[in-house]
Fold these 2 entries.
Entry 1:
Amino acid sequence: MRRTDYVIKRIFFAVMTVFVAITINFLLFRALPGSAVTNFARAPHASPELRATLTHEFGLDQPLWKQYALYLNQLVFHGNMGISFADNQPVTSELAGKLKNTIGMVFVGTFLAIVIGVVTGFLAAWRRGGAVDHASTSSAIVFYALPTQFIGMMLILLFASVLPTAGMRNQVNAFFSGGSTWSNLKDIGLHMILPAVTLALTLFGEYTLVVRSAMLETLGEDYVLTARAKGLPQRRIVVSHALRNAMLPIATLVALSLGFIVAGAILVEIVFSWPGIGQAVYEAVATRDYPMLQGAFLILTLSVVFFNFIADLLYFKLDPRITE
Amino acid sequence: MKTVEPAVVEGTALEARPSRGGHPIVRVFRERPSAVLGLSLVLFFVLVAIFGPALAPYSWTQPSGAVFAPPSAQHLLGTDGSGVDVLSEMMYGGRTSLIVGFAAALVAMIVGGGIGLLAGYSGGATDVGLMRVTDYFLVIPDLVLMIVIATVFGPSLSHVILVIGLLLWTTTARIVRAQVKSIRERVYVRRARSLGASHRRIVFQHILPQVAPLLIATTVLTIAYAIFDESALAFLGVGVPGVSWGTMLEHAFERTAMTEGAWWAFVPPGLAIGLVVIGCYLMGQAIEDALNPRLRVAHLSIRTWRIRKAPAATTHLDPEPDREEAV
Amino acid sequence: MSLLEVRDLQVWFDLPHGGRLHAVQGMNFAVDVGERLGLVGESGCGKTTALLALMGLLPPSAEVDGTVLIDGTEILRGGEDAMRAYRWTDVAMVFQGAMNAFNPVKTVGSQIVEPMEFHGTATGAVAKREAADLLELVGIPAAAAGRYPHEFSGGMRQRAAIAMALACGPKVLLADEPTTALDVMVQAQILELLVSLTRDLGLAVILVTHDLPVVAQVCDRAVVMYAGRTAESGPIDTLFHDPRHPYTRLLFEATPDLIGDAEVVSIPGAPPRLDRPLVGCPFEPRCDRAFDRCKVDTPRLAVVAARHEAACHLNDVAPAGIGSGVG
Amino acid sequence: MSHAVSADVGPGSPMGRADLLQVHDLVVRYPVRRGLMEAIRRRPRRFVSAVDGVSLSVAPGEMLAIVGESGCGKTSTAQAILRMVETTSGAIELGGRDITHLGTKDLRPIRRDMQMVYQDPYESLDPRFRVRRAVEEPMVVHGIGSSRAERERLTIEALERVELAPADLFIDRYPHELSGGQRQRVAIAASLVLDPRLLLADEPVSMLDVSVRAGILTLLDQLRRDGDMAIVMITHDLSTAAHFSDRIAVMYLGRIVEEGPSRSVIRDPQHPYTKALLSVVPKRDPRERGDPQILQGETPNPVDLPTGCRFHPRCPVAEDRCRTIDPELRAAGHTPSDHRAACVLV
């Protein structure tokens, strides 16, 4: 009974957060300097009819709350987020393509970061105070402290001759779909190495430190002493008791950070001009393409909410004590 | 009723007991070398930021040499993509980055600390309400929101500081709230309340002195994040107007210094940011560890207890002679 | 030959800020089949450390000396790895804080089955059934095996801990303050269970506690510990009626009884610090019968009667006078 | 130490020892956390009555011990008397004045008269306050002692009164530089400076070593004799209660099931629960075995109370009528008039 309460509350919280994000998103762009309302429709080289349809669709000449209702209606039911100033294409489809590229690269980068982080964190905890501990903690802190763009630029400096360092050759934006030939895939793969490695180097530090403190915490618990008293060998105690409990904070952190990584990948995508959502945000900023910016912000916020919800579910699944 | 023995297991958790009096922060710097290393790193760059502009050999905006000139006697760190002396830029740039970092951290401390204290101490509806707001702020991706706000309201020093500060206060608020909530339940606070002490007195006499060191630790960590965010904003072109380490990186990237092999145009600012962030991190971590040495004695680690090699004197006067030989 | 015998057990801890804590300074005791031995003393006297040393469960900072024999075979000097074979199959343990003795994210049943399968005493369905029988033996419905530790009350969790300790049919059960955190009625239930186990299964129990009346009612023999050493050991009856160490007498006098108007007197002063070398008798500063020799010469544990030993110079000088007052 | 005697009832007033503290039918209820579904389906809010109708009184210079197992409501009773927990119903009178629903402003001067000593000596002192400042704080809060010098004098006097002599050896120490027993004495001294008329002690010695406990208990005993202070001691240790208190009240599931003079309650218990509790208290002398009457199970969850007498599910001598009758406290024939028990068999 109590456990289902927890899930319902989390779903409710997620929905509320999405609603708040949409509202902030709406208000933010209405607070533009100058006649903000027309900004939205003044797509620089849009034809008069296009401008008319936009005004009608989004009720740009209506009072604010009426606009808000229309904005919600368009967003929720038609998935229409207006027209990009850059190329008059609907924002939604533009962003969808770019999101696929981002997810591809981010997935590889994060996976690498998690592997490095968990391994170094675990070893650091296991050989606490030893050389391995100092080495992995200090390398974690150093990479965690260096700005992402700086790591990217260093990698370009070092590997420019060996690996491609700029966006995909033929701007293939459909990363997953499309019967891409083997060479196409190889090309994407090659291009992805440096950005993914940069992302991994930026992120693994946090995982190392969290895994280390989670492991040290569990290694100090009484039930580890009980397991040792039962005569179990160290290896088995670490795996079936210490690691099992350390998974709680680790799993939640990984899920939580996934949400922010999508946003954090912006810097990596800019340095390597990777055609993802981050690059789209960068160009939208440069050209003051508000609809695009608004759409990207919404998608990134939704991804954070989504991964937060996953983190809650993970925690709920792993910890039988959740009844609050 | 709980009559559990005091937690000190004979001989194992002795180090958990604070050894000497004196202010906890001072004690941290006396006992932990990592805190001193962190402090010296940060102090070095603060001094550079204060005296830098006066000592800078060249102008930090006007070119004073060839483009991407390698480090030489005249230009110790060479020149950047538009011929400006990198060392002078570094000296002046440091001031902007640190100002943004410290100011934003201050904003985060005041807003986050205030909300954390209020929510933690009052509990009930206020606590739930404030924490809901914090949860919403936490969910919004800070970098993206910063970009949007900076774009919408235009970049300016105060804007950037406010934006970064207002997005970093959530972590401070949550940490402070948790600590205040646990202190409020402590027996000596309940005793003060049962004495009839006023809320104001309890907060200023008992709660604040106890939470202050943790607030300092969290603020120092926030400085690191703030400098980080400033460099990200600068890289996206919506950072602080004028020169900062972040703009130097962005400038070097625009001029593709990496492919030109001109490492001196972007390595100094990148390393500087890294070192300051490491310094803040070490200090903050040291203070936080000193406050709650929650890392218990690990029951399990690669090293195990040892058998004493040298034969110890027997402590037992044995009547039966044969037992003597067996030992 | 006794079931479990401990000779000259000593434990040192390396302190984080340098120095060594001599937590156990020479313990000698033995326990036979079906016998209940009490290790009694105040906090900091080394009783829990001695128990952990018996099972080799000390932290890496510990150094151990002495010998531990089970059915005549030495198990301590082989170090952590060699001891592992004897743990739970020969010697099992119940901890004081039963709350976190169990892994919170695994069911109680699976944690009882775990040692069986590892030591090979039972596997699969057989192990599950044996675990269910053990739970019934300690008074818990077998169905509870599928439930998690946080769903158990204090008393039930301690019972489950005892069931887990019996998983591989041990010869000796070490119990570290098993009932300190429980109410007097639940304490009675647990102690009654321990007594029935020694009677029915021939299990030897070593009960560590600071509660003298519990030892008086439950144990056959007792070892009174002070400052890491044996002050006195012998049948519980003689310890009460004919104590041969002032500390034993004063401890009984400081314990109030339900019926009886004897005045309850506290023992002034505090136990000595164990990280400093010992001069003379450790109890001398608090002893009401101390004389000049006590300040200089550390008394050795000497036999005063059949299986009754005490470490006090009075036994050489005026043995009769020690016990007046309590008996 | 002169002390303004408030209201009409003075200590040792001519017409016998008028009671300092009187509690009438005290009830303290906590709401039970409702599940989301229950809230939606408007199920009535359920309550736990931690204290379910407790009446007691204490005269100046008298020590009343409240004993019982965990969850019997003894701590909630003390918290309610100290106005740290809201009283659902019933009345609390201190020195003849009803303080049950007094506003915080009017309550403040009254707080001077009732002080509490807590169980955990390691937590009851602020780790950042030296002993001097810990003992002085109550005086500063209530504006006692016109100058620093006078407050210093009162602090030293209080420290010596709790046998922390010579005071200057302890006055400048931090709590972590004191032993458990010394910390508890500092906490008591910090209450004494206000010269309270009522001292509530919640398990004052349960976390201390045996050799130190007796010291604190004799100190409390002596304070009530010469300070004419009323003491209410909460404990689960019947031997301590038997030895140091004048009267004992035994609580079970939020109710007093037996109360009376200590000697009479210990030597001639009337209520089956008290008899069972006394029978399982281990004796010091190994030869005094006694026949322990061990009740099975543990104190049930107070959310769903059994009907009739709340002890009947665990009572060894329960009869059918116990399931329906919820007995009142009444004196047995042969016991002194103020020794009462709540059982049909009395």
Note: Residues 105-161 of chain C form one domain.
Entry 2:
Amino acid sequence: MVLRYIFPISLILSVFFLALSSSAVLAEEQPIAFSHKLHTVQNGIACQYCHLYARRSFSSGVPPVSTCIGCHGPQEQKLVQPESVEVNKMRTFWSNNEPIPWVKIHDIPDFVRFPHKEHINADSNRLLDDAGAGCDSENAPRSLECKLAQFRTGGDERCLACHGDVRQMEVIVQVDENFATMGWCMECHLQVKGAKERKRSGNTMAGWYHAKELNKKREADIGLVNEKGYHNPNLLDCYTCHY
Amino acid sequence: MKKGLSRRNLFKYMGVGGATAVVAGCEKSSEKLIPMLIPPTDYEYTPHTAYKYMTTCRECDSACGMMVTTREHRAQKAEGNPNHPVNQGALCARGQASLQTLYNPNRHAHPLADGKQIPWEEGMQQFSAIIKAASGAIAYLGKPASGSEGDFVDEWLQAAGGGQRFKFNLLTQKSQIEANKIAFDHANVPEYAFEKAGVVFNFSTDFLENWGNPVENARRFTDMHVYKNGRKNKFIHISPQVSLTGAKADRWIVINPGTEGLVALAIASVIQKENGTYKFLKKYLQAYSPEKVAEATGVSAETLSELAIDAMEHGPLLALGGGNVSATDQSVETLVGVNILNAVSGALNKTVLFSDQTTPESSTHQDLTQLISDLNAGKIKLLIVDDSNPVYALPPSMGFLQALKKTFVVSLASQKSETTHTANLVLPALTAYESWGDAFPRNGVRSIQQPVMSTVNMFDARAREDILLSVAQNVNKKAFSENSSYLDYLQNIWQKIQRKVGDKRKFDSFWISVLENGGIFEKPKFVRASLNRRVASVKLNDPGMASSDGLTLFPTTSLLLGDGSGANKPWLQEVPDPMSQIVWDSWMEINPDTAQKLGINDRAIVEISTPYGSVQATAYYHFGIHRNAIAIPMGQGHQHSGDVADGFGINVMKLLPDQMDKAGSLVFVGAKAKLKLINEKSYTVNTDGNARQLGRDISAATTVEELNNPEKHSSGHNRPVEFYPDRSETAGYYKPYRWGMTIDLDRCNGCSACVVACYAENNLPVVGKVRTAIGREMSWIRMERYIEGYGDDFETRFSPMLCQHCGNAGCETVCPVYATYHNPEGLNAMVYNRCVGTRYCSNNCAYKVRRFNWFNYEFPAPLDQQLNTTITTREVGVMEKCTFCVQRIKDAKYDAKNLGRDLEDGEVVTACQQTCPTKAITFGNLMDPESKVAKNALRDNPAKRDRQYEVLAELNYKPAVTYLKKVNTREVDGHDSDNHGSHEQEQAHS
Amino acid sequence: MKKFTGVWGIFEYLDETTDSIEQVRKQGVQPTVLMPCPRHEIDHALGNPSSIVPWIALVFGALGCLIGYSLPAWTASDWVLPVSGKPIVAIPPFTIIGFELTILFTAIHTLLGLAILGIIDSFRFPIPNSAKKYTRFQRDRFGVVVRCDEARIDEFEAIMKKNGAEEVHVEKE
Amino acid sequence: MGITAEYNETAGKVVIDEQKGHPGIRATTLGYGQINDEMLAMLDKPRPSYYLLLLGFLMALGLGALSLAIQIDVGIGYSGISHPIAWGFYITNFVFWIGIGHAGTLISAVFYLTRAPWRTAIYRSAEAMTVFAVMTAGLFPLLHTGRPWLAFWLIPYPNERMLWVNFKSPLLWDVFAVTTYMSVSIMFFLLGLIPDMAILRDEATRKGKKLKAMIYAPMALAWRGTNHQWVHYMRGYLIFAAIATPLVFSVHSIVSWDFAMSSVPGWHTTIFAPYFVAGAIFSGLSMVLTVLIPMRAVFGLQDYITNHVIQSVSKMIIFTSIIVGYAYASEFFIGYYSGSPFERAIFYYRPFGEMQSWTLLGDSQINFPQIAFWLMVFCNVIAPIPLWRWKIRNNPLAVWIIAALVNVGMWFERFNIVGSSLQHEYDPSAWGEYWPTIVEVGITIGSFGFFFTLFTLFAKSLPPMAIMELKEASIPPMKRTEKGN
């Protein structure tokens, strides 16, 4: 009886300290040793060939097993890599009518609504003009500047901005230790034109001597309306991600 | 009394569930990514994206068109089909809750033989064998089907060797059909054109709840009754009981039980005397002159004449009759009386329109009595029952349950019920969401029902018609030789329909257009009807129920539970009945005067006994009931309908005699009840803290007179001079949107569809009776009910209360961690994951609309499949509240952005607004002067505001929700004198 | 630590202690006095020395006040999240933070200050180890410690003895 | 009965005057050594009855811990707080214990500045009570939250979320006020202990108890009692007293603004700050008497805590009782005079319950707030009236009973404020009721257990009276006086 309650108390204490330290998932063993490097670099397959919903949906979509079978073919057809042990694992799943239980590496908390489509389709002109200019891809490939540069390039590069250089990965890993933490997301959201101004939009003394003219100027700074004539989405509102 | 639901046991490790989730977040994630094996190729599929399918709601026989939103192939939200002429996009509370028919944990999961699980093959074999053995001595007891299903069953019975189909419906319209036949030679139910009427007399019907199609009735009635262009048409409720429908009335005329017909004839006699039409009725009506019936009806002759003058002056009149409260043994005569009134006042063919299609007939009580005696005599070897539940619904005095034991019962039901509990063989059927079907609810409306998703994986069920079809093919090789499935059969029928409507396309393209559209809808064709001379021979007597001993018992229908089929749906149990605000329970409405005479307090437990049985229920003081009567709603008191329904409340049918009227319908009113006090206190849970608003004008009303005399009406609270600048002057704020809402209380009738819609849209957990008792219900929008005045002259007001998204919200400033703040679009944003749970915001919310997650609430499988995947489902310890359906705003904005424009008015529709049958709610951008909501709210134009007000405006919270006052045609007596402080309130306003 | 050279005496009575302090001071040496509780008589005899603790309190109190206003003001405008129609930088509510931090900073630094000053003074005005081992100074005895050259030891020893010291200890290398 | 004694300058000797109720305590006639020894004797090995008492308090504490564990295990929903009464026993306890925590600082700081000599004997215990009460109080805001494991979010620290806290929220003022108050009172307590810890250290050294000496030494901060140290010390002490004085008045004011800053009828009033401060002093002083009168009897401290001390505290209780009573009355007057129907309604509800016309037909029933209200009025306004009589004030037993009643009354006053207003707010349809559950009662009992356990441990491990100040107050050893010249 008493033991039962020692647990939650110690839990709270441990959570308290755990919460202060961050430890992200870096890599985990997958049911099939799938190599992103092999498929993307050597075979030249684009990200969205398999992750086909990324530009249309909130989720990028794990490729259905039929996509794998489409190239590799079932055992009897002897298509691509007929003898590979790992590919045969996939074929076994297929013939058993079972989905592959991939382990989720890039996990976004349940209280965040992350639309892949809005990021894939985002207009990189909304980024600050100098964003990504100082990228030193040799020494600091995962620096903010490099991520922005990748994002600006678009295409598959844009996926790599957040997921790391998946094209060089034999095993999929989470590169950024603080992946999908709020600060990690905000880093880039603040690189949008007007975002920093918007973050401090009220001006410090807004209430006290609240100058209308000043705020008009601010509104111009934060780029409320884009060149196409409609209002730019506010990327700093809490409701952007949390609802 | 059973406390709550056993599976939501209080002592489960719910708290730890929350805590460990946090730990898991910091440590290793073991979440799996499960891909599809083969993605759907036959149609477009994108995860997290809403796909909408048109189908038909089958919760009652009204057959409203329904548009079901599915995501990831799971039905997540039901909405009305906007193309459908009957409901025009709206749904009632029961329609909204139809999702819980689909995902009900209490559905049959397997075929059962004598309560034991068997494989399907065995079940089908047993079924075939018994059909063969019965050799034609078969009875099929099903719901009345307006669509092809009825014909199919008839055909099937023939193929199976013969038998009879019984169409069971407790709330039958048989008496009305009979009365129409007598009066107008039209044996069907007319269409009531409320919108054309100038005044409506309602003789005890509950047309906003269960009589006819409540969604359509509500819409058309509101068109007639709403305040428009400085005037408002009258609606007078003439009945011994005030239901939700009666609560909307401008005036309640208390009549003695069973005297609706006499009142109608008395009014008719005055009108006839004045306008001199229908001369053949002159003598007949003289016998029912106001002076002569005054004593029997309990209504003074002056009042009756007044009503007649009202009808003549403000006509055309629409008189409605029917419903449970007037279902005495004279109900046919009563309805003939109402028909005479309609004819005499000239309403016939103006507001009462007959079409040539016959209404789907249900079997009469007489037929059922015959069935029972056949069963008892052993004449029927096999009884097949579908989702209807006669064991529960019929009065036990009929002996149906005993008769069932004498035959083999096969149940083809999806839900557990008292009837399936007695069945020898249960073959679980699919719900309307998973199977094909159609419905032809009235002339010109053909509505299709299509499966919107594959079957719920927990339940091994098959479509009812497909079970029948394959069994028939087992038994009889020739049966249905052209049809491999019911879909084939259905398509054949629709080919005929295609020919009938003259569509020249290929059937495939026709069929696709039907599925896209939800059916084929044509303008109704009406035929002229005239009053038959025969009516003069119909005699109406004084039933004398008011004067005799005992209290007349009214078994009233329940808005949410219907005839009891809603009781196994958690939402419908959890949402309070709008009139009594009671949840998870039955109650007995009693007039306070009578109750005090009998020494019965409010909420005392009373034993109600009639010669046919007795039950114990909670007394509920209700001004709106005759002093010599009591009313008990139907729908509760289940025993074998699964844990959501079982053990809550009582079944009023136990008190009813086995008696029928001239049309052969069951007599509901006639039993005399005796009351005995059992206990002073009962464990009855109601969600309202107080029935009175104490002059606080939360649910405000005005009068037509006041609105037409601008100097008399105060233009509401004057905004004080602001110390701080308006938020719109903060950079980036309200550009271009500031979301706002208006709620027209003159349109709102308290039907609570919005409440259920919110439960469905926003993943609100159901907490059960015990937790509701201490205020832990989670509804984001609640239907507040306030009572004004005393005695017969009382007024009921409804106002939906939801988060007001205040500009100066009290909740925001007190949050220590910015978990709630004012967002640039004027929403009061609630960030769940930032919330620590101090609950100060809830304390400081004047509207009390914030809800706290006291536990990690469970959604027992498969109800979890209904959860809306576009929003966060909240965990223990966080506050939540109405978000103005921010997920819908976001989705609409993403779509608009792809189109390269800003949102237009009407593109964002909140769940509550969407389902409102009377369009009481408008939502939109207050910054756009052309938007509907801005025009309704008139925020920038105080001079033009007449009905607009903000609740508790004196607190200066600046809510974004503007209410429009209810408009009364007169002042309710005692409204201002019944409380302290109201005087000061008035002063503060002026 | 430097070796202590000088004289220290133990007194039972307050008046005898003050007398010897005064006489020692007349010789141009400021003695260190040990006492079980503060006595104004001794303060007077020592010539009313003062402390810089109040100045520490004032400086850090002002700092706390500054932080108390600027922290809320800065954080509020770092990410503008408007609440309840209030200005982003609202002075009245921040006054409370300013007040509380003033008090907190004053208190912490007063305590730290007097502790550190006490330690500094123990270096500036050392006490012989033998006196530290004498436990009755905290109980009921007064002590007068005179730090002086070896040459003047006798002089002060005599003063103490004359004034009725219970014991007089001489410390030299 | 204690003897009143005073050192007479002209007579040159101690005059014992039993009629004169002046500061004196018999201890002034004692020598330094005697005071020292008597005080240290209190820290001797305790009697078995002490352990029995401690066990009792520990059991109460255990009950509270168990209840808390259940609550965290099951969820905050296991308590009786709900919608619309989102604060219940926990916030009541918080306000109550913060209130108790006011007496210590008041006695040690305010009465130090006003030079009230009777504080000397009791201020150390009162200060310890302050520390323990504030510690107890500090638990409640944590354990009442829905997600206590995230309560650290209330602290403004730079974080990767780039989010700060809302300094406009009264709850955040609370965080600052309570932590500041707790820090300052702990520091003040430790500051006062420094010379006494040196006494303990030297005593332990003298007796050869090295371990004890090692424990006491760090707390003594190398205290030697040199004149330099004393100068800094006395200056620092004065500054502490000076800053603790506004602090003690501010803390409960800020706690009161938790309520007064909201718009809840019955909370939203300007008199809350003085009303709460007076109530806090009232309850704090009562708690001092509730604890010290039994302690005086057990340790035989009649010579130190004389009846004069009890009388002085009693007078303060009478004074604050009048203020509190006045505040009650003026609340009602404001409620009436404001004309606001919401205010009027809540002030009718508190004493009398549901108004006839509020319900459908006058279904009136007595709720928890009515019980709380009348208990509050009886205990806080009526019960202290007998203290006006000298005879009653001079009878420790009678004073103790009244003080205990005041404690009960003040708890219910807090409940009356927290609980009743939330039950009847603006929207009558959302009115509700509140009854606590066993968990809340358990945690409340546990909080008393926590407080008294700590205090009981304190009484035997640290000198419960300030030895140094007792010495300062007593007549110094003068050779010339004894000789008579």
Note: Residues 55 and 118 of chain A are 8 Å apart (CA to CA).
